[in-house]
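INFO  loader      accepted 1 record
INFO  loader      residues=192
INFO  predictor   begin
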Amino acid sequence: MRRASTIFLTEVEYSELLALSTGRRVSVRLSERAKIILLASEGLENIEIASRLGLSRQKVGRWRERYVELGLRGIEQDAPRSGRKRSIDESVIKEVVRKTLEDKPPNATHWSRSRMSAEMGLSDSTIGRIWKSHGLKPHLSTGFKLSNDKQFAEKLEDIIGLYLSPPENAIVFSCDEKVRYKPWTERNRACR
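INFO  predictor   done
INFO  writer      dumping tokens
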């Protein structure tokens, strides 16, 4: 019969593990792992620890070995897992990023997830994940957009003139055009 690794704890390690096993702000998993190590340091075998804590022998053995190999750091986090392999080729991802940054869709100012997914033959959520991983937010404007109004310069001078040298007792009101404004009655009908 194979014997489990022996664990010897210093006073500092013991007090750290004891605090983790009883702490209120400690995750249940970490508390459970600390209890495993404390019982293992008392010389108990994996099967005994498993029956005391209501765990499987394999689980106890796993955390005991992780503690022997890595110390406290070994039980604080789960081991990294490989995860599912990427099903989209890197060249396709690069093309999505390039299109997002350099091209504009016809009759639009920026790409939406649905337009890009239709263009590239990918799902909306895949496009969203690619944009998120590259920090892309095409719906947010990154620069100043100049107005197409022919009288823009004159209006700009008038407005700035009011701020720089306002007439006595002047009041300036400002309003911004809302692109998707619906009158109050239409909003109420849509909500019903």
